[in-house]
Amino acid sequence: MSGTTNESKLSDDELRAWAYLATVAEPPCAPLIALVEDLGAIEAAKAVRKRSVPSQHRKVLVPTEARAAYDTADMDLETCDRIGARLITRDDADWPEWQLLALDQAETALRGGGPLALWARGPLTCAEVTDSSLALVGSRAASSYGDYVSGQMAGGLAEAGWAVISGGAYGIDGAAHRGALAAGGKTVAVLACGIDRDYPTGHAQLLREIGQRGLILTEYAPGTTAAKHRFLTRNRLVAALASGVIVVEAGRRSGAANTAAWATRIGRPLGAVPGAVTSATSVGTNSMIADGAATLIADADAAMALVAPDGHDTKPAARRRNTDDLSDEQRRVIEALPARGGLTVDEIAFISGIRVDGVLKALGSLELAGLVDGSAGTWQLVRG
Amino acid sequence: MSGTTNESKLSDDELRAWAYLATVAEPPCAPLIALVEDLGAIEAAKAVRKRSVPSQHRKVLVPTEARAAYDTADMDLETCDRIGARLITRDDADWPEWQLLALDQAETALRGGGPLALWARGPLTCAEVTDSSLALVGSRAASSYGDYVSGQMAGGLAEAGWAVISGGAYGIDGAAHRGALAAGGKTVAVLACGIDRDYPTGHAQLLREIGQRGLILTEYAPGTTAAKHRFLTRNRLVAALASGVIVVEAGRRSGAANTAAWATRIGRPLGAVPGAVTSATSVGTNSMIADGAATLIADADAAMALVAPDGHDTKPAARRRNTDDLSDEQRRVIEALPARGGLTVDEIAFISGIRVDGVLKALGSLELAGLVDGSAGTWQLVRG
Asked: Where is the DprA winged helix domain (chains A, B) (predicted)?
């Protein structure tokens, strides 16, 4: 299933209830999810609006209090219709349940748990982009090295059919999205603002393209502005939706470290691209590798192998003809021979430290291999 | 003890015997070492010269056959006297027995074992340079990045009193030696040729300086030319003499990989400096880190900590004032406030999703911290 129209099988009332609930508390809000799971969306919305919930759910009152009286559901759903967005709820067939499960687990739920619903825009479904996917993240103030590697790696992943997930930001994120799009592949931007917002504004055109060919996801209702705490909250979704996270470039302090921490917390393989130790924008990635928190990832193949170690054979290393295949004695005889001119067998024996019969034997096989020539009375190297 | 003259307490005959033995077989030659250990140097030299050894030592005959009749001991010792070199034997007080022990162990002895003796030049003793020492090795065709990092790291090690051991080659080796010398520190060049040779010739001046201020070591007798198999043999000494090995830069195929393999084989900690994944001269180091063979090393401190993890506290990371110390609610209130202008408490409550009393509480502590100002009737951020 794909398309920009809302394909949820929910009734209008149900959808309105979900839209209200998706806005009434700042995500993440585990108590609200618990309420919806107990009562269903319609009853949960009523209870929150009336400030009257079952006693075991009273924790939901505080985080919903500030917005309970403001029902923007109709307006938000109209906005979605207008811009071709949809609301994917926990009841939706396309809800990425397996991927987001880790966020609802006890340990991480303390930090808020998973999203209640996801606003989505773009032709791809969640199922199409989460199966084989990698998040490429990193500094907004990326170096040209970081931009280049991010774009190349994203292109390699996209060509292999993998989806590239990132945060739509300047720098590494943008280069990753662009690399995937340029390769004609799948990319997903997870925003820290409303689905109708172009943030950052300089990425309006990029986000339009992702909306037309990829997928934009956010747990923030239309109109929500980007804010620092929302970036941190958004990062957990990037980590959870992807099968693994690669930090391409990160300085000593970087938001990417937060996404990396989320990956580790919820058990997603974490990779990092190394960089020059003289580069400020690689201090973070080098440090993650040095600490053992991340695996060093040099290219798209290594990135895929991080997530699917058995599914991706590494290419055989390029081999060139060399003296590694020679026996120790053959090699010592070769090394004893000068670049120009020839030597007698006795001279070779002395220089190489191999006795005469060993030298003769080695010279015989080296001659057969076309590496030495004894036809001039002395032995010499064959050029070329 | 230090000085360029021969300070061995051996008799002249003993020294001559050692010098003969040190030349009669191409190192490494474990059977010859076993013979010397059984018979002593003088009797061992006689036995080899006469081609008559105890039956359990008959393995020594083949590797000594080619050179047995050529006794260059007097000539070699005269050369040493002339250039201020000395022969350090296994009987010498300065023999680095502990460091070289690993090379005589069963597993590695199969590959030849340790050296029989070491030709040495320079004011430093082995004891002075092996206690706290690191080998910095890498490509001859180093990039300017590799040269820079090698020099910086060597300088840092030298300043901390550590000896920098390397192979005297172009590229990384040379930069490491120079970095240590420039910092007024200790450096050791382990050669793959005779102690009287300047190899590579372009490093004649550098080797002279090391000979005057550091230490040059080799198991090859005066006059021996450098050859490929000798570089490989020499590499095991670099690894053994150092407390750890750092590969600064290495391409896909590099001699440094051989030194790295030796480090692993004999249990020396192995580090590697990462580099751009777009750099051909960092393919080898990045790959060692990715495979888990080497630890990522970004600077001299990390290099020392690799060898002495408890002896070197990492410097506390630079801290700057930021919003990380704020509570979740405080941060959300801060983020709700616009860069210019102010908001009412109700507006902040809606935008942040925190109810009014929570907003007021957060604003109170933020005002005390000097981060927000409510004196104008609305709440706004404090600049600066």
From this structure: 319-377
Nearest Cα residue in chain A from B323: A228
Q: Does residue B231 sit at the A interface (CB-CB below 8 Å)?
A: no
Question: Quick check: helix, strand or coil at residue A248?
Answer: strand
Q: Residue A313 — φ and ψ, nearest 5°?
A: -70, 135
Check if the beta carbon of residue B198 is closer than 8 Å to that of residue B207.
yes
> Where are the strands (E) in B194-273, listed by range?
215-218, 245-249, 270-272
**How far does the CA of residue B57 sit from the closest CA of chain A (Å)?**
18
- pLDDT tier, B337 (very low <50, low <70, confident <90, very high otherwise): confident
Identify from A145, A249, A277, A323 which residue to disrupt to test chain B contact, counting B C-beta atoms within 10 A and taking the largest count.
A277
Distances (CA, A) of A331 to B193, B228, B374: 17, 8, 82
Condensed to tens digits (0 to 9), the pLDDT of residues A71-103 reads 999 999 999 999 999 999 999 999 999 899 888
Q: Can you tell me the distance from the alpha carbon of A86 to that of A123, in angstroms, rounded to the nearest whole number?
A: 11
CA distance A6 to A117: 14
A143-182 pLDDT, tens digit each: 999 999 999 999 999 999 999 999 999 999 999 999 999 9
Report the C-alpha gap between B22 and B87 in whole angstroms. Answer: 9
Under CATH, which number does the domain B323-381 receive? Answer: 1.10.10.10
CATH number at A84-307: 3.40.50.450
| Integer Cα distance of B321 and B319 in angstroms | 7
DSSP, collapsed to helix, strand or coil, labels residue B45 as helix
Residue A379: C-alpha distances to residues A345, A348, A361, B120, B325 (Å): 7, 9, 13, 34, 77
Q: Pick from A129-133, A245-249, B309-313 the range whose average pLDDT is largest.
A: A245-249
By C-alpha distance, which of A379, A328, A313 is closest to A358? A328
Is residue A285 within 8 A of residue A249, CB to CB? The reply is: yes
Residue A123: Cβ within 10 Å count? 15
Distance between CA atoms of residues A126 and A55, nearest Å:
35
Strand A187-190 versus strand A215-218 pairing type: parallel
- What are the residue boundaries of the structural domains of chain B, listed by start? 85-307, 323-381
Which one, of B100, B103, B93, B99, lies nearest residue B125 by Cα? Answer: B93
Q: How far is CA A368 from CA A318, A373, B97, in A?
A: 25, 9, 44
What's the gap in Å between the CA of B383 and the closest CA on chain A?
A: 17
Q: How far apart are CA A157 and CA A162, in angstroms?
A: 5
CA dist list (Å): A63 to A178, A233, A380, B309, B376: 38, 16, 86, 47, 28
Spell out which residues of chain A touch residue B221, defining contact as CB-CB under 8 Å: none
Residue B317, burial from CB neighbour count under 10 angstroms (0-12, 13-18, 19+): exposed
b (16+ CB within 10 A) / e for B341-374 = ebbebebbbbbbbbbeebbbebbeebeeeebbbe
CA B270/CA B307 separation, integer angstroms: 9
Q: What kind and span of H or E run contains A118?
A: strand A117-121
Per DSSP, helices labelled H in chain A are: 12-24, 30-39, 41-49, 61-65, 73-83, 97-104, 106-109, 126-130, 144-159, 172-182, 204-213, 228-241, 255-265, 283-290, 300-307, 328-336, 345-352, 356-368
